[in-house]
Every structure is written in C-alpha cells, then in structure tokens.
C-alpha cells in the first residue's frame, strides 16, 4: 500500500489536530514531554514486535531446515538459500521505495536531526520494522538495535510533524525515540539516554534531557512488562570481578589497544566491501544474491563444523532453544556472546572456592583441553563475522552494527582471555571477563561513543564489579580508533556521501583557544567628531578592517562603524561634511575580554549580529580597547583546529 493513500486517510485527523492542538495552543514544552512519553511506549512495543518477528521467521525458515539437515543434505541447501531470499526481498523493496531504510539506520537519524530539522518520513518506521525483521529472521548477520533506533526516531519525528512543533522540539523528539529504541532493545535506559545525547544529538543540552529520559524510561517499562526477558538484563548471571589486582591491569590495557584496532578494521572493511561489491556487481539484486550466498555458504559451512559450542553450560543443555541454536554466524549472535561471557578457567575456580559446591548452572568451566577447543572455535569467528556483516549491509540488508560490534568485542576478548589463561594464568582473569571488557572496547572504537559503550555494557550484564577494566579498555580503544581514523562508523557513512556533519561537540576544538590568540592588535580608530570624508579616507587605507572603532575624547570606546552603516549614509544626499562618526556609529557594542574563549565569542557575535567585536580590558577603573575580533578570523581558526584534530 502506498503511503500517499494512507496519508489521504489521515488528512482529516491531522487537520483536526493541527487546528485544535497545534503549536501555540498547548505550550511547546509540556506537549513535547507528553509526546516523548508516547513515543517511548510506541518504541518499546516496536522493539518487542521486532524480536517476536525475528524469532517467528527463524522458526518458519531456519529451524525447519536445521532439523531436516540432521537426516537430509537438502536441509543444508535450505540453510544456504534462506539468507539469499531474505536479502533479495529486503534489498528490492527498500531500495525501490524507501532508501532511508537501507543499512544500519543510525547515520540517517543523525543526518535528519542535523540537516533536516528532525524530519523523517513516517513510513520509514513501518518499512524499517518489517525489513529488519525479515532480514535478521532469515539469518542476516546484523543487529536489531539500529533498526529500533531509526524506528523510534521516526515515531518521534512523526509526532512532531503531526503537531507542527518547532524544529528544535522535533529534533528532541527524534532523539527521544532513538533513546527509547536503545532502552527497549537492550533493557538499558541510561545507555539509551547517553547514546541519544552523545551520538544522535552530539550534546548533553539540559533542555532536551527531560524528554529523552522520559521516553527511555517508558520504553523500558514496556519492555519489562511485555518483553521476553522482563526485569533480567540481556546477559544475566555474570559473576566477573575486578578487585584492583595490579597484575591483571596490563592485560586489559593490551585488550583495549587490540580492540581499538579491531574496531577501525571493522569500520574500514564495512565500507571497502560496499565499494568493491558496487563496483564489481552494479545491479543491486545480483549483489543481494551474491552477498546472501556468501553468508549462506560460510555460515552453513561453519555450522557443519560446529553445530554447537565445544562445551555448554548445564543451563544451556537443559534449554532446547540454547542447546540447538541457529548457526552462530547467522542473526544477531547474542547466543554466542552470552556463551563467551560465562567462560571460566576451571583451575582458577577450584583454587578460588577451594572445593565449595557450585550452584550456578550458567558458568562454563573449562579445562586446559577445553580452552584449546574454544580457542579454535572462536578464532575464526573474530575474522569471519566482520566480513559477513559487511556482506549483508553491502547486499542491501537492513540492520544495525551495534550487535556485530558486541560480537566482535566478545569473541576478540574471549580469544585473548583464553590465550592468557593458557600461557600466563596467574597474570589474568577468567576468559569471560575479557569477553565482557572487549564488548565495551570495540563498541567504543566503532561508535566513538566511549561513555555510551561503558554504560551499555554495564546495563547489558548488570555487572558493576568489573567496571574499571571496561572503562580503561573502552577509553584506550576509543583513543586508538580516533587516532587511526577520526570518523566513527556512523560519521563515515555520511562523509562518504559528501554529507559531513559538524556536531556541537566539535566546538570543543576552540574551547581552549583564547580571544587574545586571534584578535587584531594593530587597528585604526576614528574620533567621534570625524566627518564622513575623514572616515572614508581611513577605511580606504585599511581595507582589511571591516568595522572601525569610534573613540571618545578620553580614549574610551564610543562605538563601532559597520560597513552597512557607512553604505547607508553614502546612499543618501546628505553632505559628507555634515555627518560625524557619532551619528552613524553603533553605540556601546558588546565587547569581549581577551581571556574569553572563542565559543563565548561566537555567542557574542550572534547577540548583536555584528562581524567585528571590540576587545577591551579594565585598567585603572577604565575600559581600554586593545584589539578587534573579526568573525571571519574566528571561523578560520575553527577550521584550522578542526583539521588539525
């Protein structure tokens, strides 16, 4: 059904709302807060619907072929073909009708807020929901958090459009929807708020936080009451602990360095794969088949080698869903992530609890032989997962990169943890601890949202006891990733299309630049009694000065003469000898201190809409003019600092 027909049905309702509840009828702030709550509820239910849809499609497509594969080779053929069909359908529909729904979604939300006043086409929410559910449900190796972020943002934008809110409030509602999406998907309301502020909006403005917080809270309440894991975190029963052991800290620092490089490698691989596939396979439907076949063949081949992990926990063995999971390289990969988080060195546990009976069925106690088996199982996943995620997105898939980043981090951390436990067990913690820390480190490296990565990993596991290694590794990974590639995985998608977004957090580059470093120290002045002919003479002698300071007899600043003030007088028939400087000067303009930073100066430029600001100091109780600050010089310094960083 075309959106134009639906829009026609909705027109009378929208007209009534616009007439009775439009902006101005109800104060904007309460209306925005109310709509944010409504958006949070809708995003919560959208997240639940997406999860149900994914599991339902898996049960209709992948699992029947898994059962058939146990007795008939045709089952393996079916496992190869299912991702191809899903990717073809999604690629065709999204590219034909709603290109915004292609890919991982978050860059489109960032662009809509930064460039389009928060406007997102309403059908995107429904299309993204159905496309992502079909894509992930048929095995595409992508995540569901990016779609829910875009769906929530589309709900928020649609609400703002219906009620004709201002651009500022529309942006807040879109960000609130994104926060609700993260909150509901990961059962992580705090991470949702930080993600929306740090990644989507690019600032932590106080006036936008209330709506974002309320949306995240209500989305999480919906998830707690209606979602599949209720009050439990996404990955429960994590028991890792860091008690300040100095001998373990170097291994976490090394992990942060490696994860930072892995994050950059994943980002570059994602877009390299996209470029190469478009170059060699220009037709999108052929590209979808090729990328789907790559996923199907590799994913099914690995499933033939390892239908389950080398060793499972007691709880997993008792759960049919977990004892017979879908192929590890298909879907979001949450089962594999959960598995790595519970890996323990059996010798360490024995030494620690001294023979006490263990009652926790989630733990996976590994002997030395088991650790070698897990190392051989996980090592290929670290390399292959980024390729298959890149293939799915290059083939026109609709899904997020957050879950693949978690997967890459967990498997990388587990591999390093297993290697350390096999070589220097006395200098490291359990392998699962490194998997947990690696999750946060890779997410920080790919998104450049270090704070978001730290909080989301904490809320995913509800495990605060190991927060210090997570913070250290995420901070180092983020630093390494920015040093190697200044653009995050979201920003790179926009910059490749020539749509680089200047975010408010970019202004920190000039926060430490003082006015005295940019101001003009040598400048002409005119007396307040000078006539127009004298002023014109001085202006011609100093063409690099846009505005001329006008001084009183005592040497204090009287005002400034702007170019437009001068032109206005020259266009009249008044004799230039009858017009004095004090007649045309802007009296008592805002002056800045040489100690202010350039961010404060930019604010002052906008206050009076001038291109030149006087720079004054106080000396012996008097204000003394010591320089001029030109807007063009400030912007030039900003560009210089931005390129330098």
Task: Tell me about this structure.
With 645 residues, the chain is mostly helical. The protein has 3 domains: 6-225, Clc chloride channel (Orthogonal Bundle), CATH 1.10.3080.10; 245-350 and 360-499, Clc chloride channel; 507-644, CBS-domain. The protein has 27 helices and 8 strands. It has helices at residues 3-20, 28-60, 62-69, 74-97, 106-115, 123-137, 145-162, 167-186, 189-201, 206-226, 249-280, 284-305, 314-318, 320-323, 334-341, 346-353, 368-394, 402-423, 431-447, 450-461, 467-484, 489-495, 532-541, 563-570, 581-584, 598-608, 631-644, and strands spanning 343-345, 364-366, 526-527, 548-551, 557-561, 586-587, 612-619, 622-630. The strands form 3 sheets. Strands 3-4-5-6 form a 4-stranded mixed β-sheet. The chain has a two-stranded parallel sheet with strand order 1-2. Strands 7-8 form a two-stranded antiparallel ribbon. Helix 4 (74-97) packs antiparallel against helix 6 (123-137).
Radius of gyration: 30 Å
Q: Which regions have little confidence, pLDDT < 50, spanning 5+ residues?
A: 351-359
How many H/I helical runs?
27
Q: In this structure, how is the largest beta sheet organized?
A: 4 strands, mixed
Count all strands and give the number: 8
**Global structural class:** mainly alpha
Number of domains: 3
Strand content: 5-15%
**CATH topology annotation of the largest domain:** Clc chloride channel
Q: Give the N-terminus to C-terminus distance in angstroms.
A: 48 Å
What would CATH call the architecture of the largest domain?
A: Orthogonal Bundle
Portion of residues within helices: 55-70%
Taken from the alpha-carbon principal axes, the silhouette is elongated
Determine the mean pLDDT.
86
CATH superfamily of the largest domain: Clc chloride channel
Major sheet: order of its strands? 3-4-5-6
- Name of the level-1 CATH class of the largest domain: Mainly Alpha
Pfam families: CBS (PF00571), Voltage_CLC (PF00654)
Protein name: CBS domain-containing protein
Membrane topology: Multi-pass membrane protein
Domain CBS: 519-576
